[in-house]
Specification:
about 70 residues; 2 helices; 4 strands
């Protein structure tokens, strides 16, 4: 695994232990939360015992256009 992929993995694992860390983005879709890891945005939802990662976007992408 390269260094950048390892950082993304670490950020997602952090969300598993602290699922409310990301900013709520209900304006994007119901239950959506967003957390920035390096140059990427992790869009996810919180389920009972897990997080559900929906998408990864580069921070410069127009997220609304791609949802």
């Amino acid at each position: 695994m390269d260094i950048y992929a390892a950082k993304l993995d670490k950020g997602i694992r952090l969300l598993e232990s602290q699922p409310r860390l990301g900013k709520p983005r209900e304006d994007w879709y119901p239950g959506c939360r967003c957390y920035q890891v390096e140059q990427h945005l992790v869009l996810y939802a919180v389920a009972e015992q897990e997080i559900l990662v929906a998408r990864l976007f580069h921070k410069r992408v127009d997220v609304i256009r791609h949802l």
